[in-house]
Amino acid sequence: MAFQHIPVLALLVAGAACVLGNIQSPINIKAEDAANASLSPLSFKHYHSSQSTYYLANTGHGCQITLKNWMYNPKVKGGPLHKSFILEQVHFHWGKNDGTGSEHYLNGEPFSMEAHLVHWNSKYSSFSEAATKPDGLAVIGFFLEGLDNYKNPDFQKLVNVIPKIAAADSSKVESNADLLAWAVPGLAPNGYFTYGGSLTTSPYSENVLWIVYKNPLIIGKSQIEAFRAIENEHNELLHTNYRALQNAENATLRYVPSPLL
């Protein structure tokens, strides 16, 4: 089934009005409501490069990873994507305790955190241009589940840098550590859900193709605490930064099984 383009109801530009439509994100993903789809495999390039240097920044509503050198632009294509999509940034959502924090739910249950890998359509000249187009954006979502007495060694590379940007007035930090290493195992051939929805922050534009992996990545509960120490723009601890669930009635949800099954 081809991805149905969704009209943009608000432009992703400074000062744009927040206009809500019919297919807002996040949603409660119900597996029983998802039609099975047979699509070409997703293909990832340059997501794990030892030659990359990263920036980590406090945005006032979370922490964000970007690349300093885009010589090796991470890209994804295949599956529901009709073009190659370029990675723009990665950010995270969490809650005040380990039982909540993800934006999407799976069969009525939240996870400890959710990571969003934000991409833009390579048919356009820039992220800014793509963000105003009906087929401009794609977000890959990973559920993150915290366990006791465990630390994910790849995720720890990111956690080690977070204290440097925790303060609201902190500058972005440059890091030679692979801040995306934790995501690489999740990009292996695994089952995922896909639907056309929106950004989960203002202006909530409905031009996002979502790819949400079914199986969570495992991290340590102690590693989540580092995110709760980040300050917001009001110099307060950012205990919660996720959007409430939206009505999924108009979402066309599909499930793409792992090709290894």
Structure notes:
With 261 residues, the protein is mainly β. 7% of the residues lie in helices and 30% in strands. It contains three helices and 15 strands. Strands 2, 3, 4, 5, 6, 7, 9, 10, 11, 12, 13, 14 and 15 form a 13-stranded mixed beta sheet that branches. It has a two-stranded parallel sheet with strand order 1-8. It is globular, with a radius of gyration of 17 Å. The two termini are 21 Å apart. Mean pLDDT is 90; it is low at 1-19.
Offer a quick outline of the entry.
It is built from 3 helices and 15 strands. With 261 residues, the protein is mainly beta.
Write the layout of secondary structure elements.
Elements: E1 28-29, E2 35-36, E3 43-45, E4 54-58, E5 63-67, E6 75-78, E7 81-94, E8 105-106, E9 113-121, H1 127-130, E10 137-147, H2 153-159, E11 173-175, E12 192-197, E13 208-213, E14 217-220, H3 221-228, E15 254-256
The level of helicity is under 10%
Could you give a short account of the major beta sheet? 13 strands, mixed
Count of DSSP strands: 15
* Straight-line distance between termini: 21 Å
What's the gyration radius in Å?
A: 17 Å
Rough outline: globular
Structural class: mainly beta
Element-level helix/strand string: EEEEEEEEEHEHEEEEHE
Low-confidence stretches: 1-19
Strand content: 25-35%
Task: Count every helix, treating DSSP H or I runs of 4 or more residues as helices.
Answer: 3
Overall pLDDT metric: 90
